[in-house]
Amino acid sequence: MTDPFRPPEPRQSGGASLAWLLPLALTGLVVILAWRLYETGPHEVHDTGAVPKPIVARGDLAQDEKATIELFQAASPAVVQVTNLQRATDMSGANEFEVPQGTGSGFVWDAKGYVVTNFHVVNGGDAFTVTFADHSTYEATRVGQDPKDDVAVLKIDPKGKALPTLRPGKSDDLQVGQKVFAIGNPFGLEQTLTTGIISGLNREIVSLANTPIRAVIQTDAAINPGNSGGPLLDSGGRVIGLNTQIASPSGASAGIGFAIPIDMINRVVPSIIRTGKYLHPGLGIEYIPDVYAVRLGVRGVMIKSVSPAAPPSLRGCAT
Amino acid sequence: MKVGRTAISADTIVSIGGQKIESAADLFRALESHEIGHEVEVVYQREGKELKSKVTLVGVE
Prior knowledge:
The structure holds two protein chains of two kinds. Chain A is of the alpha+beta class. Chain A contains five helices and 15 strands.
């Protein structure tokens, strides 16, 4: 008979298995601790036997690599960095000096020393310098510009030196998918090559003069601030565009760059070299900005004033 | 047309050479499709009335 006040005997079998597990658990703990000590503890960081790794010989460069290298070597001597300088005076007003205002890119148009760049690169500048890949630097004077197409021309004195130039191509037969190469000075990093394809054609961008520039080439070759005014080349090394703008929420390349087509450059630049300007067809009127017309509910362009060149039948609001 | 206290009576260009003009960009695009010296028909509104005029395009910077 069992005594109800006597606690039940511990079950022998269960107690024996627990006692047997204890040393096993302790051993495991010791092993873990030892391992951690080994892992984190001080050990030798230097290897006195370290020598340069044996170089692995490589095969020939791929055909397209060779082509890109050749293209860059042929074109880059004609691509320049354009620095825009502004005159400033010190606190006393007695000393005048020139402060670099910004840099862009450009390329040599012909051996006489004409250099093509963007209007927005030279805008606001009083003096300019042009720097070549070999770091030779020339003072440049402004020949003229066409703000509506964002094109400007500078002139350097080659001083008898045979200047490298770039050959213009054609932009009316370009195709989406063609390989393109941009050379310029993004963020001041001179002679930078970036590559991509023509991503789109016939894009429209807006110039500093607030006019639409049409037939613009869209590329995914990285274009960044400082690339402006540099050439966009085709795989034949011919200039097909002038790198001008990007679409970017951050200000850096987002893979959407715009180049003014060479056909336009090839019309505008000779005119600037001849006369300092490029004339667009116009009515000889000044108009009221769109925002006011919209506010007035007017659909059309309101004439603000007419120049003597304008046809007498047109009347502005000032009359 | 009256805006505040100022009366505005400006001619408003609505088409050039058959191309509809609704903004300055439209005007620029239409002009760029012609050449300096060419004659184009300009349609404009004056005090609600639509008028037409042949205009010879001049060169502007």
